[in-house]
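Incident log, support desk, overnight shift.

02:14 A customer reports that sequence design results differ from what the structure should imply. Their input is reproduced verbatim below. On-call engineer (initials T.W.) acknowledged and began investigating.
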């Protein structure tokens, strides 16, 4: 299924039915009186979060959603039937905003969450409603009230605990495939990932977290280079960013440090709050570096980047050094979930190179 994370739709609630003017016409009842019923309420439009849906593609092609009007009132004290409500099922993580004013209406963050998008109009009053001791034969009625109509913008931001960030071909897809149940496309050319992937990492019984892999960024993404910034929104709800750096680039003229700095610069251009999230460095492809050179190379990269947070050196392809990374990420996510500050974790060059136990942050 094609991944679509933005859509614009029109919703219109139903109008209320008109009231009725009617009088009783029964044998042996010469003064029957009014019996015109009220009109029915128009149908409303609701949004419902559904965890079984992961794209907004349905709303890319079906853009107009109208609820039915309420029925008009009838004689014999019969009120009109209300118009049926309609429910628009959307992925969990969808943000619904007013397309004209930009006002955010609702965020669907839990499965089954229900939100009103357009309220149906109330039904009009029949002449039965106006009966009184001084007005025994009222001929007044009111029309139904119109339902709300809105133009809405839908924006999907996936719900994940951890986001993978990095240049194309840094090995993000290989990493998420190695640690989770996600199976993204993996190839030896850039931009193999064209839309976000989610994977669940099982650390142990009742210990798991969700990882999001987005297409790679390149320098100039804010000007539209590569795939631009269009997928960075999917990292805004994460608790932690794993910045995957290619420690063994195929092109000898490529400097991983400059690439890492370019990624940070693009983050700041897109959203200062996203750039301020906890960001850990993960140096990948260490299997392509000689064992005696790994520690020196990683230590040099960290020194030039002046990174103060945790650093890991791994090989996603060879699955080396992954378990310490997973355990550290789980501990951080668990602390954040309990609203506790994360411990200050520092980099120890002596434990950076992958080995039997793998690298770890100390």
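02:41 Re-run completed on a clean worker. Output:
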């Amino acid at each position: 299924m094609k991944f679509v994370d933005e859509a614009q739709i029109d919703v219109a609630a139903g109008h209320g039915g008109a009231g009725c003017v009617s009088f009783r016409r029964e044998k042996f009842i010469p003064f029957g009186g009014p019996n015109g019923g009220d009109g029915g309420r128009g149908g409303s439009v609701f949004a419902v979060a559904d965890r079984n849906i992961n794209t907004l593609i349905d709303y890319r092609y079906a853009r107009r959603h109208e609820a039915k009007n309420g029925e008009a009132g009838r004689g014999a004290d019969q009120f009109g039937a209300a118009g049926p409500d309609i429910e628009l099922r959307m992925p969990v993580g969808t943000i619904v905003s007013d397309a004209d004013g930009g006002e955010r209406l609702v965020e669907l963050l839990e499965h089954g969450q229900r939100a009103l998008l357009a309220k149906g109009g109330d039904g009009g009053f029949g002449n039965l409603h106006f009966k009184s001791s001084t007005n025994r034969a009222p001929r007044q009625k009111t029309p139904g009230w119109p339902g709300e109509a809105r133009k809405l913008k839908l924006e999907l931001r996936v719900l994940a605990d951890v986001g993978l960030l990095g240049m194309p071909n840094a090995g993000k897809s290989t990493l998420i495939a190695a640690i989770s149940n996600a199976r993204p496309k993996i190839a030896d050319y850039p931009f193999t990932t064209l839309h976000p992937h989610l994977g669940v990492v099982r650390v142990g019984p009742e210990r798991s977290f969700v990882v999001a892999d987005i297409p790679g960024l390149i320098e100039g993404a804010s000007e539209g280079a590569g795939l631009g910034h269009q997928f960075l929104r999917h990292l805004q709800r994460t608790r932690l960013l794993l910045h995957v750096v290619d420690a063994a680039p195929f092109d000898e003229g490529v400097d991983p440090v400059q690439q890492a700095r370019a990624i940070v610069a693009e983050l700041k251009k897109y959203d200062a709050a996203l750039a301020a999230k906890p960001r850990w460095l993960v140096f990948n492809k260490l299997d392509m570096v000689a064992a005696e050179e790994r520690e020196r190379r990683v230590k040099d990269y960290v020194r030039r980047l002046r990174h103060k947070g945790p650093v890991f050196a791994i090989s996603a392809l060879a699955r080396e050094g992954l378990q310490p990374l997973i355990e550290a990420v789980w501990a951080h996510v668990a602390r954040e979930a309990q609203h506790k500050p994360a411990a200050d974790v520092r980099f120890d060059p002596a434990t950076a190179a992958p080995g039997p136990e793998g690298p770890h942050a100390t």
